[in-house]
Amino acid sequence: MSTAILTGQPVPGSSLEGDLRSLGFDVRLASDAGEAETLLAAVPADQRVAVVDARFVGHLHALRLGLTDPRFAAAALRGAISVQPEARRALTRAVARESSAAGGLAVATDDLAERLTAALDADGVAVHRPELGTLVAAVPADPQERNEARQAVSAVDDEAVRLRSAVKARDGFFTTYCISPYSRYIARWCARRGLTPNQVTTASLITALIAAGCAATGTRAGFVAAGLLLLFSFVLDCTDGQLARYSLQYSTLGAWLDATFDRAKEYAYYAGLALGAARGGDDVWALALGAMILQTCRHVVDFSFNEANHDATANTSPTAALSDRLDSVGWTVWVRRMIVLPIGERWAMIAVLTALTTPRITFYALLVGCAFAASYTTAGRVLRSLTRKARRTDRAARALADLTDSGPLAEALNRLSRGAVRRGPAAVAFAAGALVVLGAALAPYGSWWPVLGAVIYVLLSPVALARPLKGALDWLVPPFYRAAEYLTVLVLAAKADVNGALPAAFGLVAAVAYHHYDTVYRIRGNAGAPPHWLVRAIGGHEGRTLLVTVLAALLATTQFKIALTALAVAVALLVLVESIRFWVSSGAPAVHDEGEPA
Q1: pTM for the whole thing?
Q2: pLDDT score for 229
Q3: If residue 135 lies in a helix (H) or strand (E), which one and from where to where?
């Protein structure tokens, strides 16, 4: 249980003590700083502790936001401060200084919480101050101010504010107008019954897998059920995040589940559609794999661009200024959010087309829509990068280097060449990737030309390691490598033209993509990239690309299918075991992913 130290004399008629207990705090009373120091020393070191002014008047949800959010080591609002174990020493020092300044006298503790907050700021502790909006958090100095504060509290329905704040401020049109108006109430229903976001996330995954199973039947009834279940899975997907924000139930495991399950649900559904089409005699595995590759590359473009620029200095651009002006016009905001086909619009389109048409038509529409969205967003980001004057940080360069997923071959060649290739890493990565993909596409199966292209690809791969990726377009290096590796696998599996090769390729790309998503979310959580041994063990992008081309040249088509399957299983086992170990460990960051950019 958490502990709240209530400082000063309790105010008659105040509900503060009951409010704190309802939030899970064991309330202790301290009449002076020395008593507060004694009570603080008695609280176990692994517990959250709060110091609250007894005169506090405000909404219960304001206290919840300021005192119980697990994502922050220290948080404060007017008249209250709360710290987790990692900031406990700083609070102990601040309270000791206050007690020492009092000289052992039982003096009043007016504004003690405020002074402690200022002390933590001065001590270099990052103190989170939540945005309260219309919520009230005040420390009245006299009865008149107290009466005014209570009237202000009565004038605002904090439950309505809590429900509104459970919904993301920025979301797609379909999610905002077709899902969130009622999913927030489902989130509240779940919270009142003690359900956790992780349970809702798991329910969403199970629902999506059942939808994929229905699509795999290949019947019209199965397709209709699949579309309906996919929409319901998306409702639950929105609900889990809203539940986390509504009840502030952020967790390490929840970060991992929410970050990865969306991709698992969507790509499992693609596989279900492909299986269902096969039952009807239509082979669309190449389309399913192409859709997964396109969507994954879209995401890595988003991640790379954002990582390259989120902390850039002097970050100005005429293109960005134009975008801001367009966002000031209401209707253009929603048009621009819809045409990039965010998750809500995309899943709605997939669900409707599944129920009404065929898997082939569904994949054609998905590929066209995602290709247009990718072209639109990437072109805009390229223009911004070319016109902005920004200095990228070492952290951004390190994140881009981690996202390239360079393996032992690239590292060894970089040491041998001593960083000889230093200019135009994005152009080099594009040319190398295009060479290996075209070699695979133009040569017959079993040819050694793709191997030659892969060798050149490997020889040029050190370009991502030769110098920090701080150039204007260096954020394109990871997407180019992702596209080259995934498309090479797709082309060679299609060239094999044997039953089962494309599903095996689908599994391999899915396993590698999971590793790349895992890398992204570790970086987002400021936890660094996956361990170096894992990247080495699965070969890096250049090692896997070379291996697949060599296997295609050496093996018969049936043997190639078996080799792809074995490689997919090996990669999946390695990355899943390490990922699960990391995300369920205590060292993982307590965050909740806000979903893909709209």
Answers
A1: 0.90
A2: 98
A3: none
